UniProtKB/TrEMBL annotation:
Superkingdom as given in the UniProt entry: Bacteria
Stretches of the chain forming a coiled coil according to its record: none
Binding-site positions, NADP(+): 35
Keyword RNA-binding listed: no
Record-listed (S)-2,3,4,5-tetrahydrodipicolinate binding positions: 154, 163-164
Protein name in UniProt: 4-hydroxy-tetrahydrodipicolinate reductase
One cellular component (GO) term of this entry: cytosol
A GO molecular-function annotation: NAD binding
Encoding gene, per UniProt annotation: dapB
Catalytic activity: (S)-2,3,4,5-tetrahydrodipicolinate + NADP(+) + H2O = (2S,4S)-4-hydroxy-2,3,4,5-tetrahydrodipicolinate + NADPH + H(+); (S)-2,3,4,5-tetrahydrodipicolinate + NAD(+) + H2O = (2S,4S)-4-hydroxy-2,3,4,5-tetrahydrodipicolinate + NADH + H(+)
Oligomer and partners: Homotetramer.
Amino acid sequence: MINIAVTGAAGRMGRTLIEACARAEGLRLSAALERPGSAAIGKDAGELAGLGKLGVAVRAGLDGTDFDVLVDFTSPEATLANLDYCCQHKKKMVIGTTGLDEAGKGRIATAARDIAIVFAPNMSVGVNLCFKLLETAARVLGDEVDVEIIEAHHRHKADAPSGTALRMGEVVAKVLQRDLKEHGVYGRHGISGERARQTIGFSSIRAGDIVGDHTVLFAGGGERVEITHRAESRMPFASGALRAARWLAEKKNGLYDMQDVLGLR
Ligand SMILES: NC(=O)C1=CN([C@@H]2O[C@H](COP(=O)(O)OP(=O)(O)OC[C@H]3O[C@@H](n4cnc5c(N)ncnc54)[C@H](OP(=O)(O)O)[C@@H]3O)[C@@H](O)[C@H]2O)C=CC1
Ligand SMILES: O=C(O)C1=N[C@H](C(=O)O)C[C@H](O)C1
């Protein structure tokens, strides 16, 4: 049995993770965490997730908790604080949080010398398949097309572009041997002028309760290819995260992502 701690337990992903964990074989929800001062502290994690009591009360800190893998979909600040705790206590992590800056990502890479971490901007099988399809599309279409990445998410999302959109850009840029720092264009406004072929454009929509849509558009002369993924619920992200938690059982340390977990590397 693998003991799972879920942090951000009252959040959109936290509640979905609690539900997925309660239904999973071989996994046990052993701890649920929330921000100190949150109204969820002391509530039963199962009730938060709309399942009825699971006998796991939401707590404000990791001290005194017992778990094998911490599953963290929170905020960059909270994730980095949890990373320090997991490093000190030699615990594994699955990190789904997006919006980390280069320094934050560097801290995760350094921590992974000591502990095993799966860190991925999107845990769904479908999106990870899309990353592979994008490699093929970019290789075949090359410099003959304009590349634009369009993503849409719910009105509460904190970061833009989404972590998934940025990873899609990185995948395409790597195949096309372009530097995203130089060629990434994030929205357009005013007299933006003719587009340079090397540009990789990003457009972000924030509206209503959209779970998460991503399209990469390869537009050439007379035809275009679109690779689209639409999440209909958050369960594919949660199922992927728990699949990653199981996969980590074999690992002592190292930094991995869902391409490793799914054998797509
Ligand atoms: N990799 C993937 O597959 C996916 C990644 N994500 C990413 O996951 C993250 C969370 O998304 P989502 O669930 O929609 O966001 P929510 O805001 O719904 O949930 C985040 C939760 O974390 C809580 N939190 C904040 N600080 C702490 C802390 N110090 N300790 C414990 N809990 C804390 C928040 O509390 P409070 O509200 O009080 O701040 C909130 O309840 C985002 O970065 C998002 O982009 C989302 C879906 C899929
Ligand atoms: O915040 C979200 O909701 C999501 N965030 C992830 C991202 O930034 O790519 C993944 C998914 O699209 C949902």
